[in-house]
Amino acid sequence: MKGTYLGEFQEVVLLTILVLEENAYGVSIQEEIEKRTGRSVSRGALHTALTRLDEKGFINSEYGGATAERGGRRKRFYQVTNLGKSALEEAKSLREDLWRSVPKVALQKVQG
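Given the sequence above, the corresponding C-alpha cells read:
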C-alpha cells in the first residue's frame, strides 16, 4: 500500500482537480481547496502534493498557452489519471467501511 497510499491532503487535491475539470491549475486548485475547507494552503505544500501525486502516477499535466496577463508564462493544467481515480475509490471504500464499523454508541457525545 506504500506506493498508492493517499494522505488526507493528497486526497483533497485529487478530488479538487476532478471538481475543477479542465480548469485545474495551481492557483485555481489552491483557491478551491481554501474555499471548501476554510484552511489556508501554501503554494509549497500544494506543489509538494502535486509532485508526489505525479510521481505515483495519480495525475498528469500539460501546459496551456502563454498569456499576456501572466507575463507570457503558461499555466500548468492537471488531470487525474485512471490510477489516481482507482486510488480515490480505494480510499473512499476504506473510509466508508470504517465508518460502517464504528458502533453507534462510540459516536455518542458524553454528557457531563
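The chain has one domain: 2-100. Try to locate this feature in the C-alpha cell string yourself.
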